[in-house]
Amino acid sequence: MLPLALQAQITAPESRTVRMTDYPVTARHDPVFIFCDSDGATTGTLIAASPGGTAPFTFVWTGYDQAGGGFSIPVKTETGTTSTASGLTEGGYRVSITDGGGYSTQLYAWVSIDKPVALAELLVFTCDYVALDGTAAVDQFTYYDPSTGASRSLPNGVRHLWSSTPSSAIPYPALEIDPITFSPPLEDVRYMLEVTDSFGCSASSWFDYESIHVKADFTAEPAEGEAPLEITFTDNSVRGYNYLWKYGDDSVSNLADPGTHTYYIPGEYKATLIIESEFTCSDSAIVEIKVLPSSLQIPNVFTPNDDGINDYFIPDKKSLKFLDLQVFAKSGHRVCHYRGDGEDLRDWQGWDGRINNSDRRATPGAYFYIIRAVGYDEVEYEGREYRGTVYLFR
Question: Which of 109, 134, 345, 361 is deepest in the core (most CB within 10 A)?
Answer without folding.
Answer: 109
